[in-house]
Amino acid sequence: MFLALKEIKHYKLRYGLIVTMIVLISYLIFILTSLAVGLSTQNTKAIDSWKPQRIVLNKDSNINISRSVITKEQGKNLKINPKQDAYVGNAPVVSSAKDRSRVSAQFVGLDPHQYIYQNLKLTSGHKAQKNHQVVVDTQFQQNGYHLGDKIKLNSDNHSYEIVGFTKNAKLSIAPVVYGSMDDWRQLHNLTSDFLCSAVISKNADYKAHNSDLHAYSAKKVIDELPGYQAQNSIFTFMIAFLMIISLIVIAVFLYILTMQKLENYAVLRAQGIPAGVLVRATLFQTFILVISGIVIGVVLTLLTTMALGNSVPVACDPLIMSTTVIGLLVTSMLGALIPSIMILKVDPADAIGG
Amino acid sequence: MDAIKLTNVSKSFGQADNRFQVLDNINFTSKRGEVNIITGPSGSGKSTLLTIMGALRDPDEGTVLLENEKVANLSAKARDQFRLNQIGFILQAHTLVPYLTVRDQFVLVDKVRPEGNMSAAELQNLTDRLGVSRVVDHFPNELSGGQSQRVAIIRGIYTKPNIILADEPTASLDEQRVTEVCQLLSDLAKKENKTVVVVTHDERVNQYADHIYELVDGHLSEK
Ligand SMILES: Nc1ncnc2c1ncn2[C@@H]1O[C@H](COP(=O)(O)OP(=O)(O)OP(=O)(O)O)[C@@H](O)[C@H]1O
Ligand SMILES: [Mg+2]
């Protein structure tokens, strides 16, 4: 520790540059991660808030809620315990109103007797009490909509009144408009023969009891959301690539620094200083540099997330963030292996003879 | 007891056609309290002989006994330990850690070897004696050649080793300092019963020697 700290203190510029590089790389990785998490949760926030285990969809829907419709006939054997099972009727809509910007949204019809409606948490206003009343995601507020606004959904002639706002209602990166099942049928041009798009159940053993339907696991349905997995794998790829870059950058830096020190290390080894002391100094040094780089990177990321606010969907998930931190630490310690091997290979006899 | 005993030591470098015999059947002994000087032309193998006396290299043939310890029998770890405790090197090359002040060079040794090193008072005495006490807070690149040479000498004997091996210790010193350094090495042998081996071309050192050897074409002979 003594050697490691003294050296960093002596070569401030040199090590400052390394830390700066680690800061930049980790900052980039963290921002990308936050963006990935942010976008990913925007796909699923609404579904997540329903805490589903199983989701019953029409088998023809290609495991896609918005493309699934279930008729009353198909659903007649479904057992609904309103405390844990609920119908949802989903349809993509475009909302418009006088003097307001258009918003692409996801309409979700609910049954007022079932748990999703009952558990809906509002930030303002009240729940929809009759047809043509809707509760919408707070993103509408940011887009200038207010309580009491009359909005048009698609080309439906009827207007809908915003009676409440709710947070975290996002589906496929669009804000959710919660309304009634009747409104869903109307927006979808369906007759009253149709029951819903999907049944959401908190029961992991929920059964569809119909050969046209299937109770998919919630994870499966989320994974099949359009673009969801592609988006996630692109981000994962970018982050993994950045990790590899950071590994190489750190390894190269440490390699060059260690090269310059080998002559002196030979002398120290000749004098009987064990190789372990020198290797530990290098590892410890790497650790300090990387940790300080990462800490600064994290702080910058938090500041950036705060500054960006709601304009960009960034989210710092503590678990994913700490996984990334550990990933960075591991890769840089791997980078420190090369200089460690170099040190172990130093021949102390080289110290003599000049 | 012999502090250093080399018996029939041979060493060559390279392989096959490039094989080059540096040391040829060398016998050398030194008792505690003796100052030995080894001279010889450049490239004659003096430094190589020092690496063998310092447990840094093994000979191809022959045996090396240091403080009655058969060096060939020591594990790599034990060798590190043996050098740390028993051998003091005073070397040709720049031997100080560039990012440690003079004072910290010794703190480093204390960290690795907490006991048996010079006390603060002893160190102070020695830096006074060699005229480097004013630069203890300087980094090596802030020292003159002679100053760093003298600091390296103190570093070499800071662990109070029984065997002191020096490669051209007086190279960058003026007349006055040569005398001081030689007197110091002589005192270490005579007053503290250490064994000193000095490789040097510097004739001024000869008067302090108990034995003077010459290494020519791999053969060692006492003058
Ligand atoms: N590691 C090595 N590999 C191959 N040859 C070596 C090695 N070390 C030394 N030699 C060769 O061994 C010979 C003796 O080298 P050594 O350094 O012992 O000489 P020296 O007497 O100390 O010379 P100088 O007075 O110039 O310091 C030289 O010819 C040198 O080229
Ligand atoms: Mg030499």
From TrEMBL, chain A:
The chain crosses the membrane at residues 15-39, 234-257, 277-307, 319-338. Residues 237-348 form the ABC3 transporter permease C-terminal domain. InterPro entries: ABC-4/HrtB_transporter, ABC3_permease_C, MacB_PCD. The keyword Transmembrane helix applies. It is a multi-pass membrane protein. GO terms for cellular component: plasma membrane. It comes from the Bacteria. It is found in: Cell membrane. Pfam families: FtsX, MacB_PCD. Belongs to the ABC-4 integral membrane protein family. HrtB subfamily. Part of the ABC transporter complex hrt involved in hemin import. Responsible for the translocation of the substrate across the membrane. This is Putative hemin transport system permease protein HrtB.
Automatic annotation (TrEMBL), chain B:
Keywords: ATP-binding, Nucleotide-binding, Transport. GO terms for molecular function: ATP binding; ATP hydrolysis activity. Pfam families: ABC_tran (PF00005). Residues 4-223 form the ABC transporter domain. It comes from the Bacteria. This is ABC transporter, ATP-binding protein. Belongs to the ABC transporter superfamily. The keyword Transport applies. SMART domains: AAA.
